[in-house]
Amino acid sequence: MQHLCPVHQTRSRPPTDRQRAGESVDRHAHSGARLTERDASPTTDATGDNAGRSTLSGVHAPSIAVIVVVRNALEPLQATLDSVFALDHPRVRLIVIDGASTDGTQAYLESIKTQLHFTISEPDRGIYDAMNKGWHAAPADSFVLYMGAGDLIRSLPSPDELAGAAKQGISVLLGRCMVGEMSFQSRWTREMYLRNVAHHQAMMVRKTLHPTAPFDVGYRVYGDWEFNLRLFKAGARAQYIESFQTFADPDGVSARHGLREITRVARRHGGPVIGLLSLGLNWASSLRRRWRLRHDD
């Protein structure tokens, strides 16, 4: 079974207009948010050092905007952020979007705000609304990586690898994600039309590819797959990097296999036949997962 991009909140939202790849630049971050001066220029940090450049070639290395969306999941959030801090990666810019948590998350974020590029705690219209806020806050030249509370980053591409990808015009970086005990390598193939084969926990998208907020908030679970399909159809270039390794919570929302929404996404981008094929494939995956869960018990 291909596990489809777990996210860690279940909240409804009204539909919005579809955001398309290649739209004009939106230079305004979400209003009312607290932003620290961690990215003063595209080539140097606010400290004025050379952490913004590739250590070997001297070529500019884009930053990595790690965006964590959370609501009332303090302990899993702390585990996720600790995994990021432990890397001590010079190009990471950490962004946390909190949906007005009441479990101490806001106080925790306040206590570490100097370590964050951006954080905000306020009500939102659902997962993809929160993810769009994070996208707005990411540095303009960054590769954007979404993690859920409880997900962990094991390793990230080096500044040289980031610089090399940018120089080659690569807009999507793919890695490997452990989903529980299953190892999943994100792929950028036509299989994308049938199911999401690029985990958001093992996928980074260059913000310059789609400067405006990318997610259609009319989706509850599979808005990231829908965005991936738009990028794939637009011809976005992808590269697998072995040093990009993460861990994803196997019990995310998409583990429930919302077949109606899966079919909706597949029909939207592939037509009725692809929609039916996707429905059958994901229904079979859902049955296999239920069988394994029963036998594991």
Automatic annotation (TrEMBL):
Polar residues bias locations: 41-55
InterPro entries, sorted: Glyco_trans_2-like, Glycosyltransf_2, Nucleotide-diphossugar_trans
Biased composition (Basic and acidic residues): 14-40
Name listed for the protein in its UniProt record: Glycosyltransferase 2-like domain-containing protein
Pfam family of the protein (one): Glycos_transf_2
Gene3D superfamilies registered for this protein in UniProt: Spore Coat Polysaccharide Biosynthesis Protein SpsA, Chain A
Signal peptide: none
Species annotation: Roseateles depolymerans
Sequence segments annotated as region (Disordered): 1-55
